[in-house]
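Board notes (copied after class):
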Amino acid sequence: MTQLLIYKSAVPVSRARHADCHVQSGGNYAFTADINSVPLMAVEFPQAANEYAIVFAGPPGEVTPAVILGVRGNENLYLPKGGDGWAAKYVPAFIRRYPFVFSQSDDRFVLCVDEEFLGLNRTGQGQALFLADGTPSPYVDEVLKFLQEYQAQFLRTQAFCNKLAELDVLEPMQAQVTMGGEGASVSLGGFMAVNRTKLKALSGEKMAELAATDELELIYLHLQSMRNFEGLKDRLEQAVQGAAAKANEPASVSEVVEETAETAAASVH
């Protein structure tokens, strides 16, 4: 997946370019149709662990947590048909911040908007980006607060991942999802998980340090969340059956899922 995943044409928000622009977001998440994972901040673990499998992905030095949205490439199993709504109670912040994102220039963070977002319009629908006098609207102020908090949480998450790397408790993992009926399966790789044996082998001092910073709780939430891979199997079966019904032909699971999808979460900058 590309670094910014769902962003196609993110440009700096400016009065000269967007003075008459509005954003109508609503509850349509069709822009996530082609992704099977998104980055997750550490602060989101308690809410996300109930509904998603939380893993770690990325190259050495850039590892970040991610939630798994699908077991095949370019497929989001949490997205209902048509993109309206979200098939889970909690929507990751990475998705909720869209179509906005920060870009970094030297030591400055610049607010950007994806101009390919269907809700960005010049017909007065939704929230205005600028007021009549050319100043940023209260809506933009709220967006900035959200992104500033997101960036702060990203730094905390980065520190957590650096600690896991330092302790050497992460190991590559592959999830095998076996379907019912014909028993066909699909493999999902390219991510890491905490090794329980390595975790238990840590010294009491190291464990106490993790507990004192609440990072031990984050690790346990990650481990507990892995059971949600079972729920992904159910979602995949429903998607396969729905696709077969739409084509008005018997479902053939083996024809649909014989592939290996690799997932890697993008770092947020």
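Comment from the instructor: The first strand starts at residue 10 and ends at 12. The chain has one domain: 10-262.
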